[in-house]
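Section handout, structural biology tutorial.
Before the tutorial, make sure you can parse a SMILES string by hand: atoms, branches in parentheses, ring closures as digits. In the record below the ligand is pyridoxal-5'-phosphate, and the chain has 434 residues. In the tutorial you will relate the predicted structure tokens back to the input. Do not try to memorize them.
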Amino acid sequence: MTQSTDLNLSIFERAKRVIPGGVNSPVRAFNAVGGTPRFVRRAQGAYFWDQNEQQFTDYIGSWGPMILGHGHPEVLAAVQAAALEGFSFGAPTEREVVLAEKILSLMPSMDMVRLVSSGTEAGMSALRLARGYTGRNKIVKFNGCYHGHADALLVKAGSGLATFGASSSAGVPQDVVKDTVVLEYNDVSQLEQAFAQFGGDIACVIMEPIAGNMNFVRASVDFTRRIRELTREHGALMIYDEVMTGFRVALGGAQSVYAQQIPGFEPDITVMGKVIGGGMPLAAFGARRAIMEKLSPLGPVYQAGTLSGNPIATACGLRTLELISAPGFHEALHARTGRLMAGLKAEADAAGIPFSVDHQGGLFGFYLLPELPATWAEVMKTDGALFNRFFHGMLERGHYFAPALYEAGFVSAAHTEADIDKTVQAAREVFKTL
Ligand SMILES: *Cc1c(COP(=O)(O)O)cnc(C)c1O
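Predicted structure of the complex:
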């Protein structure tokens, strides 16, 4: 394709003049992999088409929400019907109640839930709630876990435990992150050390149960269990950020997966997003009644939102959750995702390229590494140049994976075995060129 006919490129040039970096969320700019981002025109099922009308098999699914694939007819019908009734009221609706009841039925660790509009907002509110409930200031997060871009969470690990993290973004005063402790994911001894040092000041530990923002890294069962024990022992809350994993790795989220290995396991606060909106701006956080009753208007922790519980978003999310509640839905999705992972692994092995894979439900990770990593530092040992060649090779052939080696991948119910097999076939060609 010549430059003059590449509509993605010409739109990108225009975009860069009016939108910083040409995009409204940084990863879309392809900075990590280089090249021109694909501007999407439309999508259906497992595919989307860019401005050049090239078709892609979509393995990001809007970074998670499109678990049913794009334009599911029943979801579309629910959205259309809701739109006819009104876009937004700023007054309560019954559908918010129905959605809340549905969420609580799927994740029994919560008695109450509050709906918001983005995962960032949900995470930020959950932290405020944890601090308000415990009357403590310190929060613990893990290196490589993403919980949205609230100021207090934009922190990189400091040089030692006692030195708290430094802000990782300009515009975040050191004062705002001085109570954020950053620890290594899956490092039990560091966790124990932190609680020994200032356990009585810790309001909460926030974690991704399966980290989907450092590709795909599971929290070990041991690590998860120790967080649960130590938070209980020290009167801190455990916040499970299931924005990515919720309703995707299993109907009951990652907490249902870990509860199989840790009897009685449940987090104190759960943060949700992505799938619960089905592609519309919708997120939520919930907990047991005693914690949630601290929220305004019942309690002293303030939280609000003009578009919270938006009637079109709730219609979209509710229909999505109903459809994915079909018996066997996640088992089938897990098998389909496993087919992709096994296929890629077999082709990489045949080509003599180090490769490791993991997946749960419709969430996956693959690494150009001989073994699965357990920490951010291990993830970042990936050969970036090799990954970028793989990424672009697949992209040229019409298979759209996350444009960064530290992002997870997503399979939807609309992906057929034939779709998966075509992707594996393309990978065979690409591995040969690496
Ligand atoms: C995507 C994500 C968020 C942020 O959600 P937004 O809707 O993008 O604000 C928070 N936590 C996790 C684990 C996520 O994957």
